[in-house]
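During the second year of the project, the team shifted from modelling isolated chains to modelling whole assemblies. The rationale, set out in the original proposal, was that interfaces cannot be judged from single-chain predictions alone. As a representative example for this report, we include one of the complexes processed in the last quarter. Its constituent sequences, exactly as entered into the pipeline, are reproduced here:
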Amino acid sequence: MEALLDGLLGSLQPHLIFTLVLSSFVGAIVGALPGLTATMAVALLVPFTFALSPTTGLVAIVGLMQGALYGDSVPACLINTPGTPSAIATTFDGFPLTQQGKGQFALIASGVSSAGGALVGGLALLFVSPPLAEFSLKFGPPEFFWIGIFGLTMIASLSTGSMFKGLAGGALGMLVSTIGIAPAGAVTRFTFGNPGLQAGVNVVVALVGLFAVPQALKMVEEIRGKVQIAEYEEHRGVLREVLERVVLRPLVLLRSTLIGVFVGILPAAGGPIASLVSYNEAIRWSKNPEEFGKGSVDGVIAAESANNSAATASLIPLLTLGIPGSPPAAIALGALLIHGLRPGQDLFEFSGDIVYTFMWSAVWAGFVILVFSVMVSKYLTRVAVLPVHYLAPAVMLLSIIGSFAIRNNVLDVAMMIIIGLVGYVLDKLGFKAGPIVLGLILGPIVEAAFVTSLALADAQGSYLQVFFLRPITMVLIVLTLLSAAWPWIGKRIARRTGISIEALDDEG
Amino acid sequence: MDDRRMIRLNTDLLGGLFIGLFGAVGLVGSWGGRFNAWIFPRVNSIVILAMALALIVRGVVRREVEDVMPRENATRLVLPMMAGLVAYYFLFTRLGFVLTTTLLFGGAMFMLSTRRTWQRAVVVFGVAAVVAGFFYVVFGEVFYVPWPTGTWLEALGLGR
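Output from the structure prediction step:
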């Protein structure tokens, strides 16, 4: 309780509020640019947080995530192009609303819903994480091994295009994570005689390379002339109209945010899945299902509130177990690690001031987005059509600056470029970045737990007992199998909502 | 879109061959050695090779080709951008951060512009120089990032 109150007071410090507002603003701009994902925004920012204190850096990341997931609704509503994959469902009703001359109404509705989602997701983070972290004390190496494998089942959902490619990508990420000194026996692996590689591939450098460079090159290959924006007119009293709509019929918002929280906690899902499940449920529970797809405000509320609450909820397994619930959360894990913070009960016990402040800031992010939806929406409409000839080189430049600034090392720039170019070729061949990143991040966790469990099994004389018959490992094995079945569930959802499953591919 | 305007590839076959290379390097590199230290990369290499083999077989059996990217933009824009990134690394320490960024960031903006006039060149290279200077000063002075000043300045006794 004391830590909770300390965190509350800590989160209200002026410099943290300023950081939250600024990063949410930057996130909203990035989200409003079609093609730039929330994942990429976080990947690009992480190197810059290295120079900040851990608390400020983490607050910046949560602001950026939430801002991007609000900003993505702007192109979804105005040019029928989701700013990030999480806004796919927002286009279904957001764009028809704009075509009816209600663009401002659609944007404010999505802003208010995003704010509600961020708020509920933040509260879930605040109250679910501490008990879960305490429970993680019961975990030994075999449990962490299975938790890692459970996290890797997220590959199943991130590789909706091809399971073979997803698994190969995940294994490639884990192989890359083994470069450097082994956790067992201090053996040097895959350095090819280069002493600079003994410390391994820096996770953040790899993340920037995998997410930012291929994205910039894809923007270049699809370069086109100026995008025509739908007509956008401003009217008075729209905020009041939206708030009345949400307050008088709060069920849609409440149900969608709770779906977002639930899906966000699952390692096998993320923002795009959350918004589609929520959209599907909104249709199912509606008295007027025929209005969906033709400009129903309930459709916008369901999609936007779910993706924002899922984004924050995906931080719950990250902070407590070290398992990211989504690609942006995987990058947030990279940020925790570069600040020397290890997820789990220790994080809550020894760095409680940081983690509680961070979680309260996730709650405040909801209010920041609410203010943005009223004050900034009309300016974001201009950002949505920024030309690619400025955007793509700017992303490249930020990638280079970020990767050099982490350790002031030219080798990191080389690694980022190599990983980025290989990542682009892999992307063109159907291997998405999500599974590779997951393998890269979970690889060291799984390997360390596996090697220690092997030693434990040798000492106890039973591999079966250590790896399969402990009570928590049995539960985790069942969860892993259920999670691995997610693609089939996802396909059913996609079929019901009438969307191509490829539309759900990787990042959020 | 017209088939001739798109690069179309058998992504299963090529993907299997490409990722199989990493699996092969991993397996050869992890063969032998201490069991505990090498078991993890070895298992991953085997998984990669198994998936690569499955993809190659699927690619050969199905013979499906997919649209990968517009042909014209691939050679006219994407390849030069990729070359520019590689060039950046090699020029970074030799010319220094400011000069390399001005040349390649400005060059990229100019190459991607729809109108390539000398007036546009002046604007984009000017913008690139200002951006490079901004990052040099902000990161150098505030975050103490030691940007390379370039071997040519060092030769003149002015760099660090």
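Chain B has a mean pLDDT of 88. Residues 109 and 124 of chain B are 6 Å apart (CA to CA).
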